[in-house]
Design a protein that fits this description.
With 341 residues, this protein is mainly α. The protein has 14 helices and five strands. The radius of gyration is 21 Å and the shape is globular. It is found in: Cell membrane.
Length: 341
């Protein structure tokens, strides 16, 4: 026998699923096109060249900005990070890039805009970028370079090494994302055509369009998973239960949310529909934002890849910094910004 209220809850979940799908699918496709354009005009080697001559301060600002607009996945962020370190870029500036890259990007901005509106989106971007800049400055002041492993990575037909060498071209064996020197490997995820620089603007836009469809198709399962979970939360989980666990009455809700995002993270596109359903259930927006930042920054795949590049102490510092950013941004949203948004 079906428990009373189950059919109504499922019907409510289905309506919410359709609503989110109709809102998010075109937004996600548009964001995917922006991702493709950014990949065409800001490849990893271009990012490295822009940051190599920068110092603390202005370099941290530029690094965080480039981390936000360059849509690198984790397995291509690590080679870019290695390239920056190999060229002598300060570790604090490299950290600003690393911190901004997973939590502020085209997908996040477009989906946040569609789900939460321009005020929340602008506040999120400004707060997250500011924390990435400040976090990089703090890390840069701690003299942590000795905790970066000596690795050599091959990506896009070139080699980068974090032992102080300079990027060189060459052929290498295929392997994981990065390994201890002297074994060179490819990044295995986001290889680029070496002839891309000779293409016209029309070629790049066409390639971005094709890439958008591919990216949309590859990421759609994660988006649908997030929408499904969000719909079930909306229709089947009592709001009172969520309020007891993560509502304003729990003073530890925001830091716990920042930690809870990591083990259940699938992709940022999948996290945001869940985030929207939580806010509609009455969970404070700052607590939800902390959940999203923690999931994006310290997801298990991201930590596994960074473990190839960082000693354990530096990896712990990175994870702690991400959680701190999530808590700071979340508390700011729940207190200072709550009356303005």
């Amino acid at each position: 026998m079906i428990p009373p209220g189950t059919e109504a809850a499922l019907a409510d979940s289905w309506e919410y699923f359709v609503h989110l799908a109709v809102v998010l699918a075109p937004l996600f496709l548009g964001a995917s096109f922006l991702v493709g354009l950014a990949q065409e005009y800001l490849p990893p080697e271009r990012v490295e060249s822009l940051l190599r001559s920068r110092n603390h301060g202005s370099g941290n600002v530029l690094a965080a900005g480039l981390g936000a607009v360059t849509p690198f996945c984790s397995c291509s962020t690590v080679p870019v990070l290695a390239g920056l370190l190999s060229a002598g870029a300060p570790i604090g500036m490299s950290f600003s890039f690393l911190l901004a890259s997973p939590i502020v990007n085209w997908i996040a901005v477009v989906l946040l805009l569609g789900l939460f509106g321009p005020a929340v989106t602008a506040a999120y971007v400004v707060a997250a970028l500011t924390c990435a800049i400040v976090g990089g400055l703090v890390v840069g002041a701690l003299d942590l370079d000795r905790y970066v492993k000596d690795v050599r990575i091959t990506t896009g037909g070139r080699q980068v090494a974090t032992d102080g060498g300079t990027p060189t071209g060459g052929t290498a064996a295929t392997g994981g994302c990065c390994e201890p020197d002297p074994t060179p490997v490819t990044d295995g995820c986001c290889e680029r055509d070496a002839t891309a620089t000779a293409r016209t603007h029309t070629d790049r836009v066409s390639a971005a369009g094709r890439g958008a469809l591919t990216f949309f198709r590859d990421t759609l399962p994660y988006l649908l998973l997030g929408i499904t979970i969000g719909a079930l939360i909306h229709g089947a989980v009592p709001a009172e239960t969520l309020q007891r666990v993560a509502g304003p009455g729990n003073p530890l809700a925001t830091p716990l949310a920042a930690l809870a995002g990591a083990p259940i993270y699938v992709s940022l596109s999948g996290m945001l529909p869940i985030a929207h359903s939580l806010t509609e259930a009455g969970i404070p927006i700052g607590t939800v934002i902390a959940f999203v930042i923690g999931g994006a920054g310290i997801s298990v795949p991201n930590l596994i890849l960074l473990n190839k590049l960082f000693e354990r102490r530096l990896l712990v510092i990175y994870a702690t910094t991400v959680v701190t950013i999530g808590v700071v941004v979340g508390v700011s949203f729940n207190t200072v910004l709550s009356g303005l948004l």
